[in-house]
Amino acid sequence: MRKNVIFLMISGLMLGFLMLFANAATAQNNIPKNLQKSKNNPANYRDKDGHELIFNIKDSRDTLVYLVIHYNDKLILKDSVKPASKGKFVFKGSDRYDDGMYSLVSMDKKLYLNFILDNNQHFEYNLDTTMNVEHFSVKNSPENAEMLRFQRKTAQASKEANEWAKKRKDFEEAGNTDSANYYKEKLTNINDEMLAFINDLIDQNPDFLFSKMQKSYQNIDVPQYKKEDGTPDYMKQGAYYRLHYWDNFDLGDHRFIYLPSFDPKMKDYFLKLLYHQESDTINKYIDLFLAKTEKDTFMYHYCTDWLSYQFETSKVIGHDAVFYHIAKTNQLAGKCYWLDEDVIAKYEKRTKRLEPILIGKIAPELIIPDTTLTDDMTKWHSSYQMPKPYTILWFYDPDCPTCKKESKKLCAVYDSLEAIGKRNFDVYAIANDADIDRWKKYVIENNYPWLQVGGNKGNLDYLEYFNIYEMGNPAMFIINKRHEIILNKRIEMSNIPQFLEEYEKIEEAKRTRE
């Protein structure tokens, strides 16, 4: 399988970014405090030998230049200096900067240079305002010299590739197939040449942070698995790709946090590739991923916090189970040293409330009275005794505007399916209202075609059990005939038939696999 090189145009790239600068003295506050380095942070394992970075910018008229570090998808201000003399800017201090990829930015926020800070933080860089890397040079930094060599090679290859791509297109439009194929072959050759150049760079200096970054941009070679009939086995190929996705990353090296390749890969893997998988599948790959980060406490810290936030705040059905799993196997397993007792207590409270209402859990039998509960003939109804295959537990407040609007939408779906004989669910509507008269008035006025129970009475505290105090009204759960929760958050009422149809397809696929 041929690989196409994605040119990382570090030298001539105009970022076109909008930078929100803090004052230099408080720039580190752009990074969350619990991820900042301190003398007590185990991630801070190198001796502090200070830094002295000298940049000689020919023809510069800047009265100030900025030093920024790549972090997530942002550029965070680390420092700024005025010229020591015309065109000479010196960043000097007794502390080391974080290792990572940095940018030198002009006073009008235009990119001058991308470079690496790693083991050596004492070097001198010569450049000019044209940003032509042929005019650049660096002293006392082998890694940045290697990076500069790459930048020059990339700039030249890109220039040639653009020229040949244009010629190929012109010949194709003119119907000259031979000439078009000639330039197509030249494009293939330059791609192969650039790939060989990058591989050699990585092989020659595997410990350079720049080499690690270049390796992380490379695609994974996926075996071309075949089924018995000779057709591609895409399921096997997909499983291999998910399992080996991080092979070109050193996940035990927290410096990747400060490289531009890491954040896009995190988002692609967890927020695209795995995002709509079942929670058990996502949990499996999260465990494998975090296990690779654990040897670097800072990396593990960053990734655990990132994943917890993404899945706790997700609106996707089933992602609460992913957050629950992350919390139980990390924050609540004593592995996150940076969390204080109050934060741990919040995780414990959150997971305790989530656990009984996760998808797949058995919903308890609810026995709640209907509107006759103040009369001598009070009737109690069980949520387990509904005749249809699915039961919607519909929590509402009769005085809630959103509840009223959503109840009407639910009724429209209910009636439309009933009219064509395809209603496969019942509604067990639970009113959260201690004012019995108001509740009765609501029931009589609306006359919905489903069972109405409530009055804040029942065989258990259903508002507590189903976390209604925190979720608020309206809230919706769907349970199947086995009383398993198959939906634990409200969706668009019009999507209920499609949701149940998709659920049945998934269940049928599971039975087929088994």
What do you see in this structure?
This protein is α+β, with helices and mostly antiparallel strands and about 525 residues long. The protein has 4 domains: about 25-150, Immunoglobulin-like; about 165-215; about 235-355; about 365-514, 3-Layer(aba) Sandwich (Glutaredoxin). Helices cover about 40% and strands about 15% of the residues. The protein has 14 helices and 15 strands. It has helices spanning about 140-175, 175-205, 210-215, 235-245, 260-275, 280-295, 295-310, 320-330, 340-355, 400-420, 435-445, 460-465, 470, 495-514; strands at about 50-60, 65-70, 75-80, 90-95, 100-105, 110-115, 120-130, 135-140, 365-370, 380, 390-395, 425-430, 450-455, 475-480, 485. It has a 5-stranded mixed sheet, covered by helices on one side. Strands 4-1-7-8 form a 4-stranded mixed sheet, covered by helices on one side. Strands 3-2-5-6 form a 4-stranded antiparallel sheet. A hairpin with a 2-residue loop joins strand 2 (about 65-70) and strand 3. Helix 1 (about 140-175) packs antiparallel against helix 2, helix 6 runs antiparallel to helix 7 and helix 8 (about 320-330) packs across helix 9 (about 340-355). The longest helix has about 35 residues, at about 140-175. The protein is elongated, with a radius of gyration of 30 Å. The chain starts with about 50 loop residues before the first strand and ends with a helix. About 30% of the residues are buried.
